[in-house]
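Bug #77: duplicate submission created two jobs. Keeping one. Sequence:
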Amino acid sequence: MVRKAIVIPARLDSTRLKEKPLFLLAGKPLIRWVVEGCLKTDEEVFLATDSEKIANVVKDLPVKIVYTPSDLPSGSDRVAYAIRDLDVDYVINYQGDEPFVYKEDIKRLFNALKEFSVATLARKDQEFYKDPASVKVVLAKDGTALYFSRSPIPYMKQASDLYPLKHVGIYAFRKEALLEFTSLKQGELEKLESLEQLRLLEAGIKIKVLLTKNYYHGVDTEEDAKVVSEVLLKNLSSSERNL
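Kept job's structure:
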């Protein structure tokens, strides 16, 4: 039987939003939204963090907490550290600043690992096409990533039913692929674009890209927090109306 886990990396320091995991969205800390959403998928959930302040926010929830060193260079390294000795086959790195979680997308990501060693998500989104803070992806015919970029790719000389695709930074890995990934040296493209997934492509490792119509919006700035809070409140109100 394949053992699966979702690992949420969260560190206290943040360059753009102070103590981001603790930032309140619709009256609740960001990290609590993420953990609660992941727990609703019925998968085993771990929080990989360097901070007791973050852990204390979710300690009443059935999430397993793993303390990681503060000097790890990325969320992927934090996830790899958390699962290195675990008896787990598949793992999802669910970003600690992504409060929207969908059970069906989690299931699709894990299923993709039966064929591919790495999988991620993308959705068609014209709004963020020219925004360098939003990562775009182009695909091969088998649905794997050809390239990720902060630049507007592909160049849109005409309208497309598929593009542009905004990358959703949630990754599923086979355990050995994640450990290999974090052992590789940074490549030139990764350094230029500041996108760690390019390390995989430069090393010849395929990334399956699953298309989704679900709404995702990470939180990096106060403006992001405002937008996300409004959506969370709207969703909460809709749920309450259906009770």
